[in-house]
Amino acid sequence: MAKQATAKRTTTKRAAAKRPGRAAPRSPKKAAPRARTTAIKQGRIEALTQVFAALGAQDPAAWARSHVDQGHDELGRFVLLRALWLKAVEPGRLLGIARNEPEVAAAAERLITVAGLADLDAVLRFAQKQALLDVCTVLDDPSASDEGIGWAVYRTDGRGLPLWPLDRLSAGLTDSEPR
Fold this sequence. Notes:
By secondary structure, the protein is mainly α.
């Protein structure tokens, strides 16, 4: 009789677990791996937060959480965007190049005389930032090509083989701007 009662309780639990809207009873053994997984994820987020902070991210924890929780290669995306910022929008860089180019040197000097070095550099920096945003927007949306040609940006391994796509570049551009 006790065996029948135990079998009936087990059958009832299984049936309840299969009914829609009812959660299956949790076994205590499943909680430990879930807690361990959460601790591992949190450890990865904390380690990546330190990496993003060292790289100069404005909100390192948000970049790290997105990398771990959403599975995007935020580290690769951030490093690419930071490299673009440092190369394309370095303060004074474009003005320095313009002053050394025979075609525009005289015009640059006249503008500096009238507007001042700081004002001219601010306008040039804005133009550089806008151009960088436009490039990222084009890279993010290959369907913008009228020729039907597509493209993608990938992080690669040491041999140049693609690892992860680097997308949403325009969305991360402002958050990766050097301070």
